[in-house]
Fold this sequence. Notes:
- Helix content is about 20%, strand content about 30%.
- It is built from 7 helices and 15 strands.
- The longest helix is centred in the middle third of the chain and has 14 residues, at about 125-140.
Amino acid sequence: xxxMVVTDEAAGTAGMxxxxxxxxxxxxxxxxxxxxASGFVPTELEWPSTWTDRLGRDRTPSIPGHELxxxxxxxxxxxxxxxxxxxxxxxADWHRDGTLAEHVAIEARNLxxxxxxxxxxxxxxxxxxxxxxxxxxFDHGRLRAGQSVLAHGAAxxxxxxxxxxxxxxxxxxxxxxxxxxxHRALDFGAxxxxxLDADGLEGVGGVDLVFDVIGGAVQKRxxxxxxxxxxxxxVVGPPEARPADGLAVDFVVECDRGQLTExxxxxxxxxxxxxxxxxxxxxDAVAALTPTERTTGKTIIQVP
Length: 304
Ligand SMILES: NC(=O)c1ccc[n+]([C@@H]2O[C@H](COP(=O)([O-])OP(=O)(O)OC[C@H]3O[C@@H](n4cnc5c(N)ncnc54)[C@H](OP(=O)(O)O)[C@@H]3O)[C@@H](O)[C@H]2O)c1
C-alpha cells in the first residue's frame, strides 16, 4: 500500500516520504480500515511515540497520522461493535503505524460510526481536536454553565473546538491568539478576543478555567488569573505554573466512542463547526504538511 513514512527525526515533515509499505494485518480486536481521510497534528514528529514502541525500541520506518475517517475493510479475531463496509472515524494508537496510508490497523474501541451525511474530510478533522477540547473542558476542567474560560489559540485546531463547546455549555469565553486570529475566534463564538502579542493578559481579570495549548510564559501568566477553585488545563505537558488556590491538570487525549458520537452529532446539527484548513492528497502531503507560510485550521490528507 502507499503510505507516508518517516525515518529521520531531525528532518521534520520535509523528511516524510511516500513509499510502498506492507498492508497491515489485523491483530486480535483490531479493525483494518481503508483510510479515506487522515488528520495530522503539527507537533507529531516531536512525539517519542512516533519513533519508538512502548518499550522504547526504534520502530522506524513509521507512518505518522493519528486521526482517520474511512471504511472498515477487515476485522481481527474477537472484534465487536463494527462491521465490514461500515463508515468509521477515530483516533489511532500513538505507538503504532498511523493513518497517512491507504490502510491502518486500529483497535475497535478507538473507532466510532461516522454518519453517512458527514464526509470523510470532516470526520478526520474531529478526533484529536474535538476529544481534546471535550475532555479538557468537561472531564478535567469540570466546566459548569456560568463559568468563564480563557481559551488560548482560539482559532487553532483544539482552541476552536474549546471555544465552541465552552460557549455551548454556557460559559463566557475569552479567546486568545495572534492579531490575525481575532475574526475567526469571534466567529467560533468567543465573547472577547485578546491578541497575545499586543494586549496584556492581566486585563482579563479572573477566570474559572484556562485551557492552554501554548505553554511557557503564556501559561505562567495565565495561572495567576485563575479564581479560587478554578483549573489550569494544559495539553502541552506538565504545567509549569499552578493557580494559587486551584488545580493544574495536564492530560493526553484518549479515544472515547461516546464522546466522538456526541461531537459528530453536534457537527450534524450545526452546533459545532469544523476547522479544516488545507486539504491535500497523499501524493501532495509532504508539501501540504510543510507549509512555508502561516496556516490556520487542520490539514487533512485525503486518500483516494
Ligand atoms: N495533550 C494532548 O492530548 C494534545 C492534543 C491535541 C493537541 N495537543 C497540543 O496542543 C497544541 C496545539 O495543537 P493544535 O492542533 O490546536 O495546533 P494549532 O492548530 O496550530 O493551534 C494553536 C494556535 O495557537 C496559536 N499560538 C501558539 N503560540 C502562540 C503565541 N505565543 N501567541 C499567540 N498565539 C499562539 C497558534 O498560532 P501560530 O500558528 O501562529 O503559532 C495557533 O493558532 C500542540 O502543541 C499540540 O501538540 C495536545
